[in-house]
Amino acid sequence: MTDNERYDRQIRLWGPHGQAAIQASTILFAGSDSTASEFLKNMVLHGVNNVIIVDDAIVTEKDLGSNFFVDADSLGKNRAETVASLLTELNPSSNITAIVAKPNDLAFLDNEKLDSNSFVLTSGNLKPSFLSELSDKCREKHIRHAHIQTSGYFGAFYVDGGLHHFFEGSAQSQYPLEELRILNPFPELVEFFDSLDFDKLDDAEHSHIVFPAILHRVRTSLLKELNVETLTSKNSVDVRAKIDSFRRLKKDPEPNADPFMDEPGIDEAHDNIFLIYGKPRLPLLAEECFMVSDMIGEVDEPFWQLVRATQRFYKKYAALPHYGGCPDMEASSAQYRKLKHVYLEKSEKDWAEISEDLKSRNVQIDEETFDRFRRNVWKIGGIQYKPLKETLEKLPDEYCLYDDASIRLGIVQHLFIAVRRFIENNNRPPSNTEEDFSFLLAEIEKLKDKNVEQQLPEQFIIEREKFVREFCRYKGEVLPSVVASFAAMLAQEITKLIIKQANPVKGIVLYDAIHGLLNVAD
Question: What range does the record give for the signal peptide (predicted)?
């Protein structure tokens, strides 16, 4: 079986370049507990090339109740080797290696397979001092880092993806309707729209006018009639009336029948009237990407060099270079072909200018990266992650605690910080005692006091005791069902970071399985 056959489903999902990135990646997991096993199961099935498991723990009876990648025959054997063996059965094409060593010995970072495309992961009840040291070392070596922790029904994971970029953001559509440029048409597009004489079109052509031409004519006319600079949803009655004014009467209508022709082009214009409201603006992801670019300055990496060139283009024209596409429409073939050609020619012209700009700065970009950026320029994105040691200590913003769900997840965020401080002081997770309960509650109170700008909601104070008692009840132990689902979520986010597609989480994900709540905290 070839790799293309083996990974057919993944290739259909994230394309050949995404699968190539997965197969070129390396993941090192410091630990082999049930969380590590569940996470690695997902990554191995994706086709990660190199998996390294570092642990000197042996398989115990407790593992048999929580870790599905060990069995009774492996009791007393090294757990990392056992997990590696069973993971290999899932995908023999992945190189899965077990290293028998203490997972808190940072010597594993010297592994020659680790580079800037690698990920180091940790799990469980670890001291924040160790995680902080690991965070510093990963930053020094430009290795990405994540930590996942669950206990009972609660979970949290934290991600440091370094300076990250992605080409294909989370937009579901392949064609951005805003790039039809109704609000900011370029001269060639205006020329095409104006070339369509609606009155002289035959019935077949008139009923299938490309809807951007209708919206352009409506907008241009209403701006003059209403003497305004922009249209808003408050003008919807005028907009719809103006669109309907282009409808053509039937020549011989039946009695009591609709006297107007069926005109899909006009119907599409009605469906898309939002495209003529407001002013043109950058897509949100591109805007955030430009902000990251301004923050990091010149970076000798093709993606960020293309971003800088695109920023210069945007500053000059107040528009992105066009990506060259055009969505399907209920339009006449002749009109649609001409419209597609207008957008394609505009794109070629824009990107020729980008190319010349890069050449003038002696910047060379490979053709595959250039084309991928061009196709996705409207949904590119960039994130400058914070070091993991900072993310681990981040408190929820007060203004985010506004309803039951956000308050409960805010407590989870506080709770995991308090638990790690308990582990630092006591070398163990909290147990189900009044002493441990009181310690955690006191630590959360200290964290609460840091929120000096406003008082936390009263419900936060009431609910936190329930959450602390529930956490203590599990004594730091995990529930297999919670681990399986939450580790799969982390695997999804790590995969996004590896393949540079979709918009990954920016730092923290919190999970409350009791109430079925999940939230991303930047």
Answer: none
Same-domain status, 29 and 129: yes
Whether 329 and 349 share a structural domain: yes
Do 193 and 258 belong together in one domain?
yes
User: What's the domain range around 237?
Assistant: 182-276
Task: Give pLDDT, residue 261.
Answer: 85
How much is the pLDDT for 162? 96
Q: Residue 399 has what pLDDT?
A: 58
Alpha carbon of residue 14 to chain centroid? 13
Can you give the pTM of this predicted structure?
A: 0.89
- What per-residue confidence (pLDDT) applies to 400? 65
Indicate whether 433 and 482 sit together in one domain: no
Tens digits of residue pLDDT in 443-492: 988 886 565 445 666 777 788 899 999 999 999 999 999 999 999 999 99
Considering the domain boundaries, does residue 171 fall inside one? no
Pair of tokens at residue 447 = 């964290």
Please name which of 334, 379, 58, 8 lies closest in space to residue 196, comparing C-alpha atoms: 334
Question: Residue 336 burial by CB count (10 A; 0-12/13-18/19+): exposed, middle or buried?
Answer: middle
**H helices present in 7-118, as ranges:** 8-23, 34-46, 61-64, 79-90
Q: Which DSSP state fits 179? A: G
Residue 170 lies in a domain: no
Give the list of residues 6+ apart from residue 17 with CB closer than 8 angstroms, or none.
368, 372, 499
Same-domain check for residues 14 and 109: yes
Q: What is the pLDDT of residue 172?
A: 57
5-17: per-residue pLDDT in tens?
677 778 787 888 8
Domain-located, residue 172: no
Q: For position 453, what pLDDT does the model report? A: 46
Domain total of the chain: 4
DSSP letters of 444-502?
HHHHHHT--SSPPPHHHHHHHHHHHHHHHHTTT-B-HHHHHHHHHHHHHHHHHHHHTBS
d(CA 136, CA 350): 42
Transcribe 211-255 into DSSP letters. Answer: HHHHHHHHHHHHHHHHT-S-B-GGGHHHHHHHHHTT--B-SSPPT
User: How many whole angstroms separate alpha carbon 146 and alpha carbon 161?
Assistant: 8
Say yes or no: 454 and 337 in one domain: no
Q: What is the pLDDT of residue 451?
A: 52
Q: Which amino acid is at 26?
A: T
Low-confidence ranges of the chain (pLDDT < 50): 452-453
- Angstrom distance (rounded) from CA 510 to CA 473: 19
Which of 314, 304, 246, 241 is CA-nearest to residue 280?
314
pLDDT at 458: 76
- Of 384, 405, 422, which closes a domain? 384
